[in-house]
Amino acid sequence: ADDREDGSLPSQAMAHLALEEVDEAVQDPALQYSEEEDEALGEDEEEEEGEDDDDSDPFPPLYRAIAGPMGTVGEHGENEEAVLRLLVEGADPEGRTWEGWTPLMVSGSTGQPKIMRLLLRRGVDAITTDGCGNTAMDWTRHRVKGHEGDIVLSMPLSAGHHVCLELLERASGLWSPRSHELFPEAQRLRAAELLRTGYLLRKRGWGQEERFVAALGGLFDVWVDQIMPLAIGMRCQEI
User: Fold this and answer.
1) Using 50, 70 and 90 to split pLDDT, how confident is the model at 64?
2) Which has the least CB within 10 A, 1, 23, 27, 51?
3) d(Cα 16, Cα 12) in Å, to the nearest integer?
4) Where are the alpha helices (DSSP H) in the chain?
């Protein structure tokens, strides 16, 4: 009753034969690994697992370009070209690690003002904090809480750290001629437009009475020192 008219076997019989073929194949000496091969395979698997462990890096490429290879934080010097390339390729200049560190904090803690200037001109927040409430200024000073054992804090403060502190101070307030270079492109263009307007106002006094020229000169100073900072605002502010 189990035989079919077309000569085929029922599905259960086919499954049984398939299992027998698998058993025979497993028992075939030609398909067996020797003890030496088993040991070699085990060693290869351990090496692959070890390689995966060695390659694990909690920092994305942008952080690694700033901080340097693992275990050598701050020892490689500024890597501005690689950082710029990653930013152009779409790396997030404000991307955070799981501890809340930003690229700006890393550049400050390692004393790299060229990279810090590059990040600031990309519009990163200069006063944001990490998961423990530390700012980029705190990291640059090596005065942080919650990360006292971090390797970067063992670095001596250098001239680069002091330049970074000065950059952060300039970048944390309203626009001024002194901080202009640290503002994002849109705000720098806005500043150029306003500055041109101020020059035009001043130019109207040329050829006029000396008293009028002096008054317009004073107005230009007020324009640059008081009106423009309010018009442009803080870094990254909507304009």
Assistant:
1) confident
2) 1
3) 6
4) 11-27, 35-55, 61-67, 80-88, 103-109, 113-121, 136-141, 159-171, 185-203, 210-222, 228-232
The pLDDT of residue 148 is above 90: no
Residue 108 burial by Cβ neighbours in a 10 Å radius (0-12, 13-18, 19+): buried
Asked whether the predicted pLDDT for residue 207 surpasses 60, the reply is no
What would the two tokens of residue 76 be?
């490689």
Tokens of 98: 């799981």
Are 112 and 66 a contacting pair, CB within 8 Å?
yes
Which residue's structure tokens are 């086919």?
Answer: 14
Q: Quick one: average pLDDT of 41-61?
A: 54
Domain 61-172 of CATH type 3.40.50.12780: no
The alpha carbons of the chain give a radius of gyration, in whole angstroms, of 33
Question: For 156-178, b where at least 16 C-beta lie within 10 A, e where not — what string?
Answer: eeeebbebbbebbebbbeebeee
* Domain ranges across the chain: 61-172, 185-233
Nearest to 138 by CA among 161, 116, 154: 161
Q: Which residues contact 220 (CB under 8 A, 6 or more apart)?
A: 198, 199, 201, 202
